[in-house]
Amino acid sequence: METAELLEIIARGEDSKHQFKVDVTNAQSLASEIVAFSNSGGGQIFIGVADDGSIRALDSANVGRINQLISSASSDSVRPAINPSTENVEAGGGIVIVATIPDGIGKPYLDNSGVMWVKCGSDKRRVTAREEMQRMFQASNLVHGDDVGIPGTSAADIDLDYFKKFFKKSFGYDLEEQSQPLARILSNMRLSSEGVLTVAGVLLFAKEPRNFLPVFHIKAVCFPGTDIHATSYLDSADIHGRLQTQFEDAMGFMLRNLRREQNGQSVNSLGEVEIPRIVLEELLANALLHRDYFVSAPIRILIFDNRIEILSPGHLPNNLTIENIKNGNSNIRNPILTSHAIKVVPYRGLGSGILRALKEYQRIDFIDDRTNNRFCAIIHRVRKERPQ
To answer: Residue 120: left (phi > 0), alpha (psi -120 to 50), or beta?
Structure first.
């Protein structure tokens, strides 16, 4: 880094990517700063710079001491250890140390006291909320929301007839032909863990999923006009049940509240739905299978005169962006659900759902709302003018 670049960055002040320190003397305190940056996309610490941006350049003795402290703090006081790089930049008649902390690939990182830190603007904060911790573990593929065990459940809560049909369709032979007990089969399929059903097991096969996971359902409302009304609506439904039931009932809700167009068919035909059915199927399946099951909130389907909104809890995982998903990239957030989904909903996987939807219908926008921790698919409705 050149001196001019250093001064330009300092002139802009501290933010979530740049932090100033006059000096560092405590390895534990420095470790917490390193942890926060590693958990939050990386950044730089400028040592020899005051909070107000004034240069407090370091002499050669302090440069050696601080570089050694950075090395020991990042290896001995951070779990897992990371490897920041340092650069000594001339400024103000001495040296400013620029420590660059990479975005961690082994998140979440903790300090020696077992505390998880993240950046919060130019400062840092402890992570204490259980859901936030779970999402950080999820981002590192250490745990998945659909793999969490649900206390109070067991193999007895499975709808056995429904599971038998699924098993036959999936494997080509009857469940009774297996020599293993049901509990072992469920465990082998990762539908149960340590004797209790997982989120995937409940959502896919439980007799009454709402008894155990009441919040994981779909709230659907059809409003008049183009805005949400506090008291006025045309149709509404709280859609519960197994994943297949939620999919089918939500499709039914959307289809009955959309227009049908003749498109050259006879007057006795039902007509074609204004939005291609495959678009609705792909985006609904995407919401059910890729939502964040660590977020305690329902999927929402809102129908207005000019659009349909499908709001799914959880923003895009890891480094996925809107452009990524439009190009067919994917990141499987719920691997158990997706592995079985092809037998219960029209799901093909491999990141192709968004591509198929856009191929059939171009008027779709996507919003990765990280502030409200949700992903929104907006399907614009276009009323065709009747010929005069």
So the answer is: beta
Our measurement of the distance from residue 386's CA atom to the centroid of its chain's CA atoms, rounded to an integer in Å, reads: 43
Written as six digits, the tokens of 326 are 């439009």
Rounded-to-integer distance, Cα 279 and Cα 357, Å: 5
d(CA 85, CA 184): 49
Look up residue 330 and give its two tokens.
């994917």
**Which amino acid belongs to residue 93?**
G
Global pTM exceeds 0.85: no
Domain boundaries, the chain: 3-128, 150-210, 218-380
Q: Is 138 left (phi over 0), alpha (psi -120 to 50) or beta?
A: alpha
pLDDT per residue as tens digits for the range 177-212: 888 999 999 999 999 999 999 999 999 999 999 999
Tell me which amino acid residue 114 is. Answer: G
Under a CB-based contact definition with an 8 Å cutoff, are residues 112 and 26 in contact?
no
For the domain spanning 218-380, the CATH number is: 3.30.565.60
Class of domain 3-128: alpha beta
DSSP state of 151: T
Report how far residue 361's alpha carbon sits from residue 359's, in angstroms, rounded to the nearest whole number: 6
The pair of structure tokens assigned to 49 is 């710079």
Beta-bridge partner residues of 196: 193
